[in-house]
Write a structure and sequence with these properties.
single chain; 320 residues; Arc Repressor Mutant, subunit A; Rossmann fold; 15 helices; globular; transcription regulation; Tscrpt_reg_HTH_GntR; transcription
Length: 320
């Protein structure tokens, strides 16, 4: 059954793919346990990029509709699986129950179990407050933004480092790398960072996806509006334009500006109807806008799987 993909209706392609997959599941075409086409197969069938299908599958997996099994493929979750994925608290309680039963079989009382788990959790919290994490990315906007956003309640401190700065000042920056317990980067730069650091450090890759609300707001901008992208670097601008292209919005005319002086900003911004802005420049841009202009902050966020992987990796760190 063909998917109703429409390229010129303003709705991002990956959202259309997501909704179409949901419709197939609700209509009974794909049932619980069925294996879906691979990203490559579906992208070829729909004549869209593989990234478009990947984004749709990731959204559905995060919502508990699909389940991905490495080496086997992507499957439709049954209803019980979806409930378990969404209700993480119940799943955690089951894990605690199993641990309690194991503890009782080892001869510990419930009071001792409560005391030991409390002590152990506090030890982990104290440890995380001392863990040193380095986040390496290719542009200043993302590296600063995510160094702040990836903080955890335990008081974890993340040091941001721009990839180009590291390559140009390697000897000066190397002490930061040596001192770090864990290095984080994105999948896009994983191989490069791994090669630069060699075997000396554990490098963890995370996936960053454009926030859905951001894409939808841009898709809904009426035709004829003058749109500008204001950010700090050409690198970030290129990533934004690529993300919009992958979402099927490459037909929108967007002018990019990496202006640094307030005089230049004051001259350019009043000429725009819609300003897409990187997180690092929003406040600066707002001072030159009026109420009739729309500001859209282009936000990337780590996917759920990456955050969970990062949390697990931090807990499992073994210092030398």
């Amino acid at each position: 059954m063909p998917f109703p993909i429409v390229r010129k209706n303003g709705i991002p392609l990956y959202i259309q793919v997501k909704e179409a997959v949901l419709a197939e599941i609700k209509g009974g075409v794909w049932k619980a346990g069925d294996k879906l086409p691979t990203e490559r197969e579906l992208s070829e069938k729909l004549k869209v990029s593989r990234n478009t299908v990947s984004q749709a599958y990731q959204e559905l997996e995060a919502e508990g509709v699909l389940s991905s099994v490495q080496g086997r493929g992507t499957f439709v979750c049954d209803r019980d699986d979806a409930v378990r994925i969404e209700n993480r608290k119940d799943l955690l309680l089951k894990i605690i129950d199993v641990a309690m039963e194991e503890g009782l079989q080892l001869g510990f009382s419930l009071e001792e179990f409560v005391e030991l788990t409390s002590i152990r959790a506090q030890e982990k919290l104290d440890f995380l407050s001392q863990v040193r994490v380095l986040f390496i990315e290719c542009n200043r906007e993302q590296v600063d933004y995510f160094a702040k956003r990836l903080q955890f309640d335990a008081g974890l401190s993340i040091t941001p480092l721009v990839l180009e700065d590291f390559k140009q000042n390697r000897e000066e920056m190397m002490p930061l790398v040596i001192a770090a317990d864990l290095v984080i980067t994105t999948f896009f730069h994983y191989d490069e960072v791994k090669e630069l650091l060699g075997v000396r450090k554990n490098v963890l890759a995370i996936a960053l996806d454009p926030q859905l609300e951001t894409i939808v707001r841009i898709a809904r901008v009426p035709a004829g509006r003058k749109i500008g992208l204001v950010c700090k670097s050409d690198n970030f601008a290129g990533k934004v334009l690529l993300a919009l292209k992958n979402a099927g919005l490459d037909g929108i005319d967007i002018k990019t500006f990496t202006l640094k002086s307030e005089i230049d900003l004051a001259e350019v911004i009043p000429q725009l109807d819609v300003i897409i802005v990187s997180p690092g420049r929003r406040r600066e841009v707002e001072s030159f806008t009026n109420r009739r202009q729309e500001i859209i902050e282009f936000v990337y966020k780590p996917d759920v799987a990456s955050i969970n992987l990062l949390r697990a990796a931090l807990i499992d760190i073994r210092r030398q």
